[in-house]
Structures are given as structure tokens and as C-alpha cells.
Amino acid sequence: MIKINNLSKKYKGAEMFSVSSLDLEVEEGEIFGLLGPNGAGKTTLISMLSSLIQPTSGDFTIDSLDFKNNKRKLQQHIGIVPQEYALYPDLTAFENLMYFGSMYNLKGESFKNDIKKQLEILGLANFSNKKIKTFSGGMKRRVNLIASILHKPKVLFLDEPTVGVDVQSKNVIIAHLQALNKQGTTIIYTSHHLNEAETFCTRVAIIDKGIIVAKGTPEALIKNQPEANTLEDVFLALTGNALRDYA
Ligand SMILES: Nc1ncnc2c1ncn2[C@@H]1O[C@H](COP(=O)(O)OP(=O)(O)OP(=O)(O)O)[C@@H](O)[C@H]1O
To answer: Which SMART domains does this chain map to (predicted)?
Structure first.
């Protein structure tokens, strides 16, 4: 479903590549986790794949569409859940979702019913007509998720969708992502929650300093790493214990 070939990104003025000659294939129907310490290049990679930023060099295709020549078509195929909320605080949840739908030309009664259904599934039916600025972080994340899937994308990119939310919201988000995946959506997500990734992902890639240092099923990575019992053990063995602060 996704084929990445020799993809690199060096930001303007930066000394180092944030993503460096990266090759990766993600199959249709996977839940693929991009894991790595702060500054590893996860957001940069997802931002290139979702056409938010331009690669410095390299190629990728999504559903056999080359990113250089099919930007418009790709926008219909993919959904993006960014780290930051992309919601209007003074609009209600329903109004926000109507607005996001309009960007994909979605309107009419069946679309309104779809929004209601999604709000219901994500536990927000009673808050449909409340302004976003009154919502908790977990509620905003759930609305953000709905906004990205209204056009029923084949591939969904999520940048830390469960960061900073309560356990209840996290569980609802993960369950919904699993349901979408069962219906055929390929999911690529970044996370710092290694326990979550261990059970949620079909495969993961551990990224450090812009390169993939390991990839495979969580079980295979644990099995192949001496003395590792969890994905966190593998992660620390491959990326070390040093802090990765950057500014
Ligand atoms: N807009 C930018 N301009 C310059 N450098 C950037 C920019 N965005 C990111 N970087 C740099 O690129 C590198 C990778 O950052 P990126 O945000 O992709 O990492 P990440 O793995 O998503 O980190 P985190 O887990 O903290 O979100 C870092 O060194 C960062 O400082």
C-alpha cells in the first residue's frame, strides 16, 4: 500500500538530515507503528507521507500513486490526524465536522447522519452542540480523529493519537482505530507508548536519528533481541538510555 524509496528530509538551515535515505513498505491492512525517541524523525516522515512537507529527495507511492504527480488524488486516499488539534474552538463539534466534511465536498442528510454516528461511537453524542473550547484534551483528540476519517480514507496517518489523554479516551480511540482497520483502513501511527504499540501494531519500525534501526512484528523484534521481554526492552537496547532533548 505504501512504498518508500530512499526518502530524505533536511530542513532549511539544519545541519543534519531529519530523515535519511529511508526505505520502507507497508502492506494494505496493516497497523504500522513508527517508534523512536524525541527528535528521531517520526513526525517528519509522517508529514512527508501526508504531503504536509516536501521531501528533500527520494520517492514514495501510496496505493500505487506516486506522490509527485498525484497530490490531489492522494488527499482523497489519505486521512491525517496531526499532533496538534486542527479544530476551531468557537465552533461546536458538529459544526467543526461539517466544516471538515465540506473540504471533501461532503454534505447532505446522509453525511450529517454519518457525523452523528461517529460522535456516538466515540462517546461524544451528548456534546455534539457544545463548543470545542469547552472540551477536554481527550474529547478534542476524539473529534480530531473523526475529522480525519469523514471521507473514508484508505490510509490513515496518526501522529501520537493517544498522547496526553486519559485512559478511557485512549481505549476508545484504540478500539475505533481497530474497528476502522477491520473495515480495511491501513493505519500508520507514531507513538511513545510501547506497551500500546506491542499489542496494537501488526509491525513496527524503530527509528533513530532519521534511520530505521529495526523493523518487524513486535514478537519477532522481542525474540531477536537478547534478554528482551518487551518492546520497550528492544527499544532501549537499540536506542540507548541517553536523553534526547533538542530545541
Ligand atoms: N520545521 C523544522 N525545522 C527545522 N528542524 C526541524 C523542524 N521540524 C523538526 N525538525 C528537526 O528534525 C528532527 C526530527 O524531528 P521530528 O519532529 O520529526 O522528530 P519526532 O521523532 O517526531 O520527535 P517527537 O517524538 O519529539 O515528536 C529533530 O532534530 C528536529 O529538531
So the answer is: AAA
